[in-house]
Amino acid sequence: MAKQPHLIQIRIESWADEDANMELLRLTNIPEMTKHLGGPETEKQLIARHKRYLKVNKAGSGRMCSIVLLPSLEVVGGIGYWETLHHGETVYEMGWSVLPPFQGKGIAVAATAAAILSAKSEQKHRFVYAFPSVDNLASNAICRKNNFSFIGECEFEYPKGSFMRCNEWRLDLDTTM
User: Fold this and answer.
1) Cross-referenced SUPFAM superfamilies, in alphabetical order (predicted)?
2) Closest by alpha carbon to 76, among 49, 106, 32, 107?
3) Cis before 159? omega within 30
4) Taking the complete model, does pTM exceed 0.70, yes or no?
């Protein structure tokens, strides 16, 4: 009898103005987690990021979330999608992070699938994009596993004023089940 793989169960919860979400930003703000994103941010930058996440949710211009592992209810990462202008079209951009002890377990893949369903249910934009660094093998794999189409390599500005080589991935929400 074949052994069944353990299926990770998560839920995504809207980002809230809580200490736990600020602590999550601090926990993900380490060199290991930010090496593909320009390095750690200052406390002031983290506070500004937290406020941007709250603003996205309040404005309805996307959805920023924490990733909660079930059944333990432990917050293990963050994921979100937000409106951006890409090639003259308003689309969603998506990004995620999972804390190191929880990486490699399928959590980001499951959270990305949940965020895709959320974006699709809004019926606002046809496309969602992701721009992981060409060197971030794990994030590129998450795109592949969630049926994003690889568009190609591109230059991407992040953080502001700094350009990086990224892979451009696109998912058509109109054809996603």
Assistant:
1) Acyl-CoA N-acyltransferases (Nat)
2) 107
3) yes
4) yes
Angle at which helix 107-122 crosses helix 137-145, to 10 degrees, equals 50
Rounded distance between C-alpha atoms, residue 73 and residue 20, angstroms: 12
| b/e per residue 71-109 (b: at least 16 CB within 10 A) | eeeebbbbbbbbbeeeeeeebbbbbbbbbeebbeebbbb
Higher pLDDT, 51 or 162: 51
Q: Give the whole-angstrom CA distance, residue 43 versus residue 102.
A: 24
3-state class (DSSP) for residue 116? helix
Sheet bearing 149-157, strands edge to edge: 10-14, 62-69, 74-86, 89-98, 127-130, 163-172, 149-157
User: Is it the case that residue 32 has pLDDT exceeding 90?
Assistant: no
**Paired strand residues for 170:** 129, 149
| 3-state secondary structure at position 164 | strand
Comparing C-alpha atoms, which of 174, 105, 103 is closest to residue 136?
103
- Which run of H or E residues covers position 65? strand 62-69
Beta bridge partners of 96: 79
d(CA 95, CA 77): 11
pLDDT value of position 162: 73
